[in-house]
Design brief:
about 325 residues, five-stranded parallel β-sheet, four-stranded parallel β-sheet, 14 helices, 11 strands, binds phosphoric acid mono(formamide)ester
């Protein structure tokens, strides 16, 4: 593996999950793999889980991680080719990224979409510019349209429960449900979850959302899509709760309907479903306290598994680099 920016960088999802679970069982078994190597963690947006878990994963492999809040501590970066830099941007990524390539062995980047210009966001300009100009492997810590480390973590968590629930004789029913939120959020987590679950191909996959919240078909193709949340949730084994803003009429909130919040009542007709969320979560807006605080919620396990997902990915990159 050279870069890790989407499921397309992974040749065998189950093998990567197996590797992550190997690290979960024995975190320091590859302590020498990253010895004398340095990893840069660049943040153009806030993060708690991604930042800490990737740092721990790198250290478990013997790497030295250095975090840098580009948005708060760095020069304001320009990403447009042939930009006339007479505005607020101070340094072009063309100049900054090759320097990162000299400082680090692997570069990890978190960016968010503007939610204003769909074409720019969906071209993944920021992360692609770092790939183009850094000259070293690049790992997405969430980009404008995808969050692959989160999605790998989600499949690791589902896999752990598949074994515990012994539902191997049938494909698990996995439901991605839209939830209300107070502000427009990116489609990244939902896009990425759909992309990975479709590529994994081992479930009955249903997506439910209000009208006009269709995601980009390039990620959802293969899933059943319905506006009827109650029917979608029936017999669910896993419920993945997430808000996203509109994709078609880009970056808007059309629906404030609180009835889309996941409550105890809604999980009653499920197969005692495990409830997932990438976090951070707005309690009693997206998910009710009674669900989040119940035995059905696996959100803490899911967040803890972020370490093993990151460790498996970094290990693949280090092994490929030789
Ligand atoms: N799920 C997730 O990416 O969390 P952070 O934004 O805290 O990194």
């Amino acid at each position: 593996m050279r870069n890790f920016v989407s499921v397309h960088d992974v040749s065998d999802i189950n093998a990567l999950v197996k590797k992550a679970l190997k690290y979960k069982a024995d975190p320091f078994c590859d302590r020498s793999l990253g010895r004398d190597k340095r990893i840069g963690l660049l943040f153009l947006n806030p993060s708690m889980r991604t930042r800490l878990s990737t740092q721990i994963a790198a250290q478990n492999l013997g790497m030295e991680p250095i975090g840098f809040n580009v948005d708060k501590e760095g020069w304001s970066l320009e990403f447009e080719e042939e930009a006339i830099m007479s505005g607020h941007t101070v340094e072009h990524v063309k100049d900054a990224a090759p320097i990162m390539g000299k400082y680090f062995d692997i570069l990890c980047i978190r960016t968010f979409p503007s939610l204003k210009n769909k074409q720019d966001d969906y071209s993944e300009l920021y992360i692609n510019q770092f790939i183009r100009y850094s000259g070293i492997p690049v790992v997405s810590l969430e980009s404008a349209t995808l969050h692959p480390l989160q999605s790998l973590t989600d499949i690791i968590t589902i896999t752990e429960h598949l074994e515990a629930l012994k539902v191997h004789r049938r494909r698990p029913r996995i439901v991605l449900t839209w939830a209300p939120h107070v502000k427009p959020l990116p489609q990244c987590v939902a896009n990425s979850f759909a992309q990975w679950i479709n590529a994994w191909g081992q479930s009955e996959f249903v997506i439910t959302h209000p009208e006009d919240y269709e995601l980009d078909e390039q990620f959802t193709k293969g899933a059943s899509i319905t506006h009827d949340q109650d029917s979608a949730l029936k017999n669910a084994d896993f419920i993945y709760v997430k808000n996203w803003s509109t994709y078609k009429d880009y970056g808007k909130i059309y629906c404030y309907d609180p009835s889309w919040m996941l409550t105890r009542e809604k999980i009653t007709p499920t197969n005692d479903a495990k409830v997932m969320h990438c976090l951070p979560v707005r309690r009693n807006v997206e998910l009710s306290d009674e669900v989040l605080d119940s035995a059905n919620s696996v959100v803490t396990q899911e967040a803890a598994n972020r370490v093993w997902a990151a460790q498996a990915v970094l290990s693949e990159i280090l092994n490929s680099a030789g």
